[in-house]
């Protein structure tokens, strides 16, 4: 990468032969065009690509949750990239090329807001899930009665998500999830996250277990 000092080319943007110019941080820069590699990817590279694609496709359905849930990302990453990076490292199991998601380790948000104490899920007739949690202890740090509760349910058989964002508050202590009736007999995985009412603080997501809908 070279820096132009208003020489014979002056400042320019776009491609010129095998180079391209851009204006960055009040400087005119010239860079070489990246070269295409004719080398086939190694087995290690292919494995990384498979794991990355698996998580990227899965989390793409939850973009609104991820955007808030990973807002405290490193400055050089998007919220989605931060979420994918974490889950590729921690929530993928199996042997190449048959990778699978470990739903018990999947993390949909990461933060310091107090988690939902005593979080439980129970099935109910009519394709329902009864979600409940306990009140935070008196004086609990980073816990507010107005914190918003979001519930995510993944149908393993139909490969579909039910995303219920901000459907309750921490002091509600319970929420009844009505799933589609055709979910009866299917296996689902449940997650819960909390967000402060100004969306500037989140809890680390909690896994609520796997259930067969009745």
Question: Could you provide a short overview of the structure?
Answer:
The chain is an alpha+beta fold.
Q: How does this model look, in words?
A:
The chain is of the alpha+beta class and 214 residues long. The protein folds into 3 domains: 2-32, no CATH class; 38-108, no CATH class; 111-214, Sandwich (Immunoglobulin-like), CATH 2.60.40. It is built from 3 helices and 13 strands, in the order ββββαααβββββββββ. The protein has helices at residues 43-59, 63-69, 79-90, and strands at residues 2-4, 14-16, 19-24, 27-32, 92-95, 98-101, 117-124, 128-134, 148-155, 160-169, 174-178, 187-195, 206-212. The strands form 4 sheets. The protein has a 4-stranded antiparallel beta sheet with strand order 1-4-3-2, with no helix packed on it. The protein has a 4-stranded antiparallel beta sheet with strand order 10-9-12-13, with helices on one face. A 3-stranded antiparallel beta sheet has the order 7-8-11, with no helix packed on it. β5 (92-95) and β6 form a beta hairpin. The N and C termini lie far apart (62 Å). The model has no long low-confidence stretch (mean pLDDT 90).
The share of residues in extended strands comes to: 35-45%
Helix content: 10-25%
Which topology of the largest domain does CATH recognise?
A: Immunoglobulin-like
Strand order of the largest sheet: 1-4-3-2
**How would you characterize the largest beta sheet?**
4 strands, antiparallel
Give the mean pLDDT: 90
| Overall tally of domains | 3
Derived from helix and strand composition plus strand pairing, the structural class reads: alpha+beta
Low-confidence runs of at least 5 consecutive residues: none
Oligomer: single chain
Number of distinct helices: 3
Corresponding CATH architecture of the largest domain:
Sandwich
Could you tell me the radius of gyration in angstroms?
A: 23 Å
CATH C-level class of the largest domain is Mainly Beta
């Amino acid at each position: 990468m070279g820096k132009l000092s208003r020489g014979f080319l002056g400042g320019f943007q776009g491609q010129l032969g095998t180079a391209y110019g851009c204006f960055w941080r009040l400087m005119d820069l010239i860079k070489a065009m990246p070269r295409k590699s004719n080398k086939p990817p190694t087995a290690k590279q292919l494995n990384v690509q498979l794991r990355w694609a698996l998580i990227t496709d899965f989390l793409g359905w939850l973009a609104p949750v991820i955007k808030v849930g990973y807002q405290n990302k490193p400055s050089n990453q998007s919220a989605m990239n931060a979420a994918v990076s974490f889950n590729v490292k921690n929530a993928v199991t199996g042997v190449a090329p048959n990778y699978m998601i470990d739903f018990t380790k999947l993390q949909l948000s990461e933060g310091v807001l107090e988690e939902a104490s005593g979080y439980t899920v129970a099935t109910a007739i009519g394709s329902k899930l009864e979600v409940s949690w306990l009140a935070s202890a008196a004086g609990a740090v980073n816990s507010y009665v107005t914190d918003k509760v979001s519930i995510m349910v993944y149908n393993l058989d139909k490969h579909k998500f039910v995303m219920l964002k901000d459907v309750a508050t921490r002091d509600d202590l319970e929420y009844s999830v009505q799933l589609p009736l055709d979910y009866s007999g299917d296996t689902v995985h449940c997650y819960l996250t909390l967000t402060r009412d100004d969306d500037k603080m989140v809890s680390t997501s909690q896994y609520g277990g796997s259930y067969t809908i009745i």
